[in-house]
């Protein structure tokens, strides 16, 4: 399908490579199991703060720590949806069958792009190592939702002559247009620091509260 596969040296490298690819405009994902998801928590926090779409598949196994790598357990729910320091925004999906894995990963990418946040797909050892025949998916009927992109026309993040406001606060659902590196007028920094609408670091309680509400509006819109 024209994709690229990279074997990273560890889970921290894997999630940060995914975020770099997402920042550049690509759809990107990685997969891991429980302890690896723990190592990705800070990167998932960066994805929440910088509002970068990404998908992580967690094929759950028995824990805690290294646990029982070949044994089955569904114990990562709290880590998947709330793991992290501070207020994190992410969506968690759980496929029910082998066939559902295909459609929920497509769904995960659509949700990640639409709401510009991490999506975790909670699989488990039973699904991950199972061999089963399923009906061949008809990709003509698989929807694809694109991310909201910046167009310098004065209506989506920047008026003529103004700086691009990547993290525009005035959107109803909290989703603000993204630019792709190289777009004229679309320069911004995707920082892990709290920031204003331009992406510049700001530490005031007022800006932090406003940006936190913006990020949670996206989650509320997704749930609706």
Précis, in short:
The chain has helices spanning 11-23, 34-39, 41-50, 77-82, 98-115, 125-128, 205-223; strands at residues 29-32, 54-60, 91-93, 118-124. It is an alpha/beta fold and 224 residues long.
Topology readout:
Blueprint: H1 11-23, E1 29-32, H2 34-39, H3 41-50, E2 54-60, H4 77-82, E3 91-93, H5 98-115, E4 118-124, H6 125-128, H7 205-223
Parallel strand pairs: 1-2, 2-4, 3-4
Report on this model:
With 224 residues, the protein is of the alpha/beta class. The chain has 7 helices and 4 strands; from the N terminus they run αβααβαβαβαα. The protein has a 4-stranded parallel sheet, sandwiched between helices. The chain is globular and about 55 Å long. The two termini are 32 Å apart.
